Amino acid sequence: MDDKIFELLEKMYSDIKKRFDAVDGHIIRLENEHGHKLDALFDGYKQSYEKLQEHDNRFDDIDSKLDNLSLKVINHDSKLEVLEGGRKK
Hints:
mainly alpha; about 100% helix; 1 helix
C-alpha cells in the first residue's frame, strides 16, 4: 500500500513539476517580449523628451530675440515721438 501511495505522490509531483516548468517558460517568454516592447517605448519617450528639450531651447532663444526687438521698437518709438514733437513746434 505504501508503495502505491509513494508512486502516486511521485506521479503527482512529476505532473505538477511539468506544469510549473511550462508556466515558467511562458513567464520567461512574456518577460522577454514585454521587455523588448518596454525598451522600445522608453527609447521613444527618450527621443520625444530630447526633442521637446530642443524645442524649449529654441523657443527660449526666439523669446529672447523677441524681447530684444520689442525693446528696440519701444526705443525707436520714443525717438520718433521726440523727433515728431520737435517738428510740430
